[in-house]
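Holo prediction. Input below; ligand is S-adenosylmethionine.
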Amino acid sequence: MKNIPINSIINEDCLKFLPLLPDESIDLIITDPPYAISSGSKKPLSMKNIKKQEGFGGDWQIINEEWDTFSFDDYCILIKKMLQESYRVLKQTGTMFICGTYHNIGIINYFALSANFNIINEIIWFKRNAFPNLSQKCLTASHENILWIGKSDLWNYNYNTIKKLSYSFDRLKEANKQLRSVWDIPNNKGKDELAYREAYPDPSYWIKSQKPLRLIDRCIEITAQPGDIIADWFAGAGTTLVSALNHSLSYVACEINPKYVDVIKWRLAHQK
Ligand SMILES: C[S@@+](CC[C@H](N)C(=O)[O-])C[C@H]1O[C@@H](n2cnc3c(N)ncnc32)[C@H](O)[C@@H]1O
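Structure of the complex:
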């Protein structure tokens, strides 16, 4: 593949898709790989022996997906290769936001350093409305982690624009104050973000780990420049692509599950 398939979503394993992309062709990668928390003995306490109860839901209890089941070694290979290829395809000014949890963010951090990335920030996404811990054996997980990493020290930070902003939902960001590395963003999704579920009522099309749009919007607004190409290798419900489209930026993405690819195409076609 000599050219990047701009504004397309490819139904492929990212480890097969990434080697086809040209060197230094992508400005920004925002991606959310599997967390490797669905496999048997390594399930975190918060997910062990828990049956779904009425009124409870959310990531920690219900992510038990085929795509998330790995041996530790296989998971390390996926993350290592994905990060090495991401480094190769990023422009010198390029950066990458990688979402994770406390189960996998250490692995991502390790392989990012070994692929030669700069660790710019670790962001703590504080989920004020996290649901209670049903096991009663550990603390209630109320954050996720996002690493912002750069290919060189030439990355763009839209400092002045971001400093001016405040958000009605974020108690930690005031107008004209620097943005901190703890983000107070409720995990609620708007009606528009879940509208695809009416078009695809079969729950096997529903992406339980779908990120809220305003989280991904913030990643884009921090660093993106007009004309940038935004990529996502684990596209899920397509949140990164929807955000890129809303910011009039180009995108390229892959996703291994054909059902999720249908969802993404639907969402992109129905963006207002
Ligand atoms: C955590 S979810 C991403 C959710 C997404 N951020 C969103 O907002 O909807 C991870 C996704 O990676 C996909 N996936 C898993 N392994 C993959 C691989 N090797 N290549 C491409 N996609 C993969 C899964 O099907 C799943 O949709």
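The beta strands are 8-11, 26-31, 90-100, 118-126, 143-150, 182-184, 229-232, 250-255. That is the main takeaway for now.
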